[in-house]
Specification:
Subcellular location: Membrane
Membrane topology: Single-pass membrane protein
Family: Belongs to the ROH1 family.
Keywords: Membrane, Transmembrane, Transmembrane helix
Main location: membrane
Order of helices and strands: HHHH
Low-confidence stretches: none
Mean pLDDT: 77
Shape: elongated
Helix content: 55-70%
C-alpha cells in the first residue's frame, strides 16, 4: 500500500508536495487499519512497519497507533481469529451456529434448542443494528 509514497525532498517540503504526502500517508494508514479490522482468512500476516520519516511531528503518533493496532492484531491472530472488528467476528460465529442448526434441523425441534436459536437470532439482529448505526456517518451526505 505504501510503495508509492515518496517523502518530499528539501525544496519540495515548502510547496504542495508535503501536504499531498501527509494526506497520502494518512490515507494509507486508514486503509491499513481497515485491513486489520476486517477478518480475512486469505492473508498470511499484516505488515506493521511503515517507512515514515521521524522528522515530521505527526509521525510519532501514527507509528504509535500502528504499533498498538499491530500488537492487537497479533494477539487476535494467536487466538485464531485475526481482525479487530469484534462485530464481524461475532456475526461470523453466530452465522455458523445458525447454519449448523438449519442443516441438522428435524421437526419437531426441542424447546431448549429453539430458545437458544431465538437468543442467537436476537443477538445477531442487535449486532446488525449496531453495525448499521455505526455506518450512518459514512453514508450521510454533507
Amino acid at each position: 500500500m505504501c510503495s508509492n509514497l515518496t517523502v518530499p525532498r528539501g525544496g519540495e517540503s515548502t510547496g504542495l508536495a508535503q501536504p499531498v504526502y501527509i494526506m497520502s500517508t494518512v490515507m494509507v494508514f486508514v486503509m491499513w487499519a481497515l485491513v486489520a479490522a476486517i477478518p480475512c482468512q486469505e492473508r498470511s500476516g499484516l505488515s506493521t512497519h511503515f517507512q515514515i520519516p521521524k522528522q515530521f511531528g505527526w509521525a510519532h503518533s501514527i507509528i504509535g497507533m500502528q504499533e498498538k493496532i499491530g500488537e492487537e492484531w497479533k494477539k487476535k491472530e494467536k487466538k485464531g481469529s485475526p481482525g479487530l472488528l469484534e462485530e464481524m467476528q461475532r456475526m461470523e460465529k453466530l452465522g455458523q451456529s445458525l447454519i449448523e442448526f438449519a442443516d441438522g434441523f428435524q421437526f419437531p425441534a426441542e424447546a431448549e434448542k429453539l430458545e437458544e436459536v431465538a437468543a442467537q437470532v436476537a443477538e445477531l439482529a442487535e449486532i446488525c443494528q449496531r453495525m448499521e448505526e455505526g455506518l450512518i456517518p459514512f453514508t450521510a451526505a454533507d
